[in-house]
């Protein structure tokens, strides 16, 4: 009998805790998804910058080869 009373008292608390955990997990998942999206955007921008710098270097080498500099 005491175990059943204890169970009836603890179940609502556990349910609330589980709902809070589920809420936190969903919020964390959304934050992770957003971070992944921003990281992908930064990688794309970084790649574009690296490509531009390489092209500038290629052009500079071409100018030196052609003796324009």
From TrEMBL:
InterPro entries: BLOC1S1 (IPR009395). GO terms for biological process: endosomal transport. Transmembrane segments: none annotated. GO terms for cellular component: BLOC-1 complex. It comes from the Eukaryota. Belongs to the BLOC1S1 family. This is Biogenesis of lysosome-related organelles complex 1 subunit 1.
């Amino acid at each position: 009998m005491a175990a059943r009373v204890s169970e009836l008292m603890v179940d609502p608390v556990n349910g609330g805790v589980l709902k809070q955990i589920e809420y936190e997990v969903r919020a964390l998942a959304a934050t992770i998804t957003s971070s992944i999206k921003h990281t992908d955007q930064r990688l794309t921008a970084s790649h574009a910058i690296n490509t531009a710098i390489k092209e500038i270097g290629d052009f500079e080498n071409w100018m030196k080869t052609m003796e324009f500099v």
